[in-house]
């Protein structure tokens, strides 16, 4: 894959950059550079207006194009559950905390501009996304305040060698709820994929519309990885740990 610097020149139009690299929208948003209606400006001019270094901006675009850090680089089957939990919090929960509202803002803009013309898909996409955003926010709260502390407590009990002790509740109960919520989230993501024709922008889509679809697709990929780490590694290992502590 050629680097961003190899394909983008100082005079490349901002609108052309976001078309080639939808992930760059996040960077233009951060620097307050208009990439949608006022995007037909050369990069050098847009950067001069905002007093931003072109090299720094392109380095950020390069970073935004890469897959999320830590994805698939470590074998989480080995190692303490507390570290896996911290990784989930720092990577996936932190990502959702910034990405869920950013996508909601873009979706609102797209609906305002294209809602009537694409009434077959956009209102349903809005409804599905809004529901999913709320569910995921509540879901993360439960993991962060109920399940994850319980698992960390189990691990501390194991390393202190003091036996199961007075556990507040077995991890299997909240895990079952979390798994059901993961299934509901996966169903909502399948619906969004169907509604957007596999995240394909319509012919008349503006740059915000394209960036929204790109963002939703990345959100789906990140959430799949997130759910995989919890369902396939963290949850079974937490149940195993609890069973090993409660003895034969
Ligand atoms: Fe999670
Ligand atoms: Fe979860």
Architecture blueprint of SSEs:
Elements: H1 4-7, H2 14-20, H3 25-31, H4 43-50, H5 54-65, H6 81-114, H7 122-160, H8 172-195, H9 207-246
Helix pairs in contact: 3-5, 6-7, 6-9, 7-8, 7-9, 8-9
The site of one fe (ii) ion has 7 residues, from helix 6, helix 7 and helix 9.
Low-confidence stretches: none
Shape: elongated
The class by helix and strand makeup works out as: mainly alpha
Calculate Rg over CA atoms. Answer: 22 Å
Supply the number of structural domains.
Answer: 2
Give the oligomer, counting copies of the same chain as homo and different chains as hetero.
Answer: single chain
Order of helices and strands: HHHHHHHHH
* Helical content band: over 70%
The hetero molecules present are: fe (ii) ion
Q: Distance N terminus to C terminus?
A: 54 Å
Overall number of strands:
0
Helix count equals 9
Largest sheet: none
Strand content: under 5%
**What do the pLDDT scores average to?**
89
